[in-house]
Amino acid sequence: MPTPFADPIGTPGQPWGPAEIARWRARQVRQRSHADDVLAPLARLPAPFDAFRYGELVVGDDRYPLMAVRVGTWQPGLPGVLVTGGVHGYETSGVRGALHVLDQHAEAWAGRVNLLVVPCVSPWGYERIQRWNADAVDPNRAFREPSPAPEAAALMRLVAPWRGQFSAHIDLHETTDTDESEFRPALAARDGQPFVPGSIPDGFYLVDDAANPQPAFQQAIIEAVAQVTHIAPADARGEIIGSPAVAPGVIRYPFTALGLCAGLTGARYTTTTEVYPDSPRTTPEQCVAAQAAAVQAVLGFVVADRLRQPGEAAGAAQAPT
Q1: Is 18-313 assigned to CATH 3.40.630.10?
Q2: Residue ranges of the Peptidase M14 domain (predicted)?
């Protein structure tokens, strides 16, 4: 277990104001390159991939192109699938998993699904290995109108014309030891609340939508990922991170009510992945492979679902512009 620390910014019991947020932002140091790690691989993608800019994130003197990738020719009548990574910039396997899918698997699905991949939603956070954006806002609580996070707002604008026309959306995340040692203490300090220690699940798990549960869909992903890495068990209370486990490795959150990324499309099938890269039972490579296996399971599920229910699951997803 990580050892929590008291966040040194602010006054205990008082929420942060602009001065505290500015102090926090000044402490964030660039540790890796979005241009090298994300933009360069996207620039190398061959046809039939179409990498395009859907917006720009500006933070001070830093400007980040926000990139998405279409795979193949988008065809009316095929199920649309959205894959997002890096909503929380520090969750590395989500970004690497999305890029791995593009590099190794996506082309095989051209002509069977309309696939849209957004590998890194939060590039400022990615470079600083940070959960929040530059305004100390959690992007994965900001998918609502009006959004307090420009990263979330840009993705919402991209998806808005086709909201409800996607069959599935998988949002790739991690739960790390720093959730407990750094980010949750910082959250408590930011909001002027006491920090209550919790625990980190050891293994992969999924978050289903409490307002639209799809147990067969979640189970298909769990079965695929179990071939790659271990599934997080429930604790003694039958919970994972404080939520009841409704099936092995599956909990539920209300996506739209919480402003979660996985709720932005209105898709029938939605999920948020969580891997645990700090587990002694896995490696960073296995975590990336687990994310890729989850995406592959989603794609296989929606294709099979379309064959079972051609009049219902095909949708009318069109090509973003």
Answers
A1: yes
A2: 30-321
